[in-house]
Amino acid sequence: MAKLDESLIAALAPFQKLDRHQIREILDQAVPKRHDEGSEIFREGEEADRFFLLLDGFVRVVRTTPTGEQVILRHIPPGQLIGIAPALGRPTYPASALSASESLTLAWPVRLWAVFLERYPGFASHAMSAMGQRFQELHDHVTELATKAVEQRVAACVLRMVNQSGRKVEGGIEIAFPVTRANIAEMTGTTLHTVSRLLSAWERDGIVESRRKHIVVTAPHRLVILSGATG
Amino acid sequence: MAKLDESLIAALAPFQKLDRHQIREILDQAVPKRHDEGSEIFREGEEADRFFLLLDGFVRVVRTTPTGEQVILRHIPPGQLIGIAPALGRPTYPASALSASESLTLAWPVRLWAVFLERYPGFASHAMSAMGQRFQELHDHVTELATKAVEQRVAACVLRMVNQSGRKVEGGIEIAFPVTRANIAEMTGTTLHTVSRLLSAWERDGIVESRRKHIVVTAPHRLVILSGATG
DNA sequence: GTCGTTTATTGATCTTGCGCAAACTCCGGA
DNA sequence: TCCGGAGTTTGCGCAAGATCAATAAACGAC
User: Fold this and answer.
1) Domain boundary pick from B129, B163, B189
2) In chain B, at which residue ranges do the beta strands (DSSP E only) sit?
3) Is the CB of B213 under 7 A from strand D?
4) pTM value > 0.85
5) Chain B residues within an 8 Å CB radius of A146
6) In the structure, how far is the CA atom of residue A215 from the C1' atom of nucleotide C8, in angstroms?
7) What is the pLDDT, as a whole number, of residue B3?
8) What is the mean pLDDT of residues B140-169?
9) Which of the listed residues B86, B105, B129 is the one where a domain comes to its end?
10) What is the pLDDT of residues B91-125, one digit of tens each?
């Protein structure tokens, strides 16, 4: 197997403070893997024996309720660690990770987590602050679900995806990975029907344009207003 | 000021593995404080300069939306650390902490967090696993808000409080701190009216009994069924 | 190309639970 | 003891959004 190139991760937040030699060490222990769109990276309840770095693509973190409904907890952009539950003393993954677009991960056995924390400067503090940020996001999410109306939630959800992964296209900003109406419904706690109606209405109003699985936001500021963000 | 007794914290999870001498060190750096019911321990947005241990009483973690609504994110029982956001690299507290019943805290300056992590065996791993558990809870909360109907959410919420802080009384199990209908509404993303109606209905059905600010669950199993926990 | 599946749209109807309003009860303080 | 405020109960009407249902468009496999 060809050696992984150091430039792959040298610039990423978790490893920013490390020298070439350390990057090399880390890469030599990593197992790279490609994931097709829709495929499972790890599954809820599975023994959590590895943690991952998402090099390219987008990942959806999903939970399934006892009654079979799916809830999308978050989307992860490239450059972030995923599946770090084992590092938090959890024996199993608390949610499933699905590849939202074709993607590439590196994986390490969970025993290396402690080693990384101790040996690589900046890794521990990055991990901590990533968790802090994640708490913040979850609190936001709960607050939103508890207080906002459906239209505001969907608007906020679309905006979040755009902010996290928007790429400029002519006429607006496009969400960089495939998203269905059902996906948005699973993120916002509503139904695909309602999401479809909202997107249709927004399209009539010139706020978004959408094709199958793709959404382009043409008037972000108006979405911000709809989302009820009181600044 | 009288020295704090070592037995106060020696048995608590974060400090379980420490010897007398270490417990002494920790206590000598702590600032104890009593909080009246309803008083603020720290406030959202405030500079996060201390972290706390809740020795006695119950604490509500609350966020206020830009539109003035309150959302109760969690209740914390005695023996747990609170306000550990600064340890996660956050410069300000992400939520407010209110004393739900008269309570007692110990506080340490945030710079000691790193010292505790390093010097006291078991502290770091306890902190990690507490965070892991907290993530789990937040994921549960999001899932619940996104998929369950109001009655199920309220039932689950009451059950959670009972499980966390229930004390046996004649005729059932009582939630150990004062809770109003409005509080439950703020936890479950509904209105106090709906909560009141639900509790009245449950009282008619013999599932709960409630006085002002106090709830006794007389038929927990029936609440479990209502909460839609498919086990 | 054709077939089958996945995704999206849209209408009609029904239900949940919110908003509003009014009254009542409990409790603490003057 | 009375008063005022906080907490609670309950009724009624309405609207947001779920559910049911049917169709259409896009795509992949063959």
Assistant:
1) B129
2) 31-35, 40-42, 50-56, 59-64, 70-76, 81-82, 96-99, 103-109, 166-169, 172-175, 208-211, 214-217
3) yes
4) yes
5) 71, 145, 186, 188-189
6) 13
7) 77
8) 96
9) B129
10) 999 999 999 999 999 999 999 999 999 899 899 88
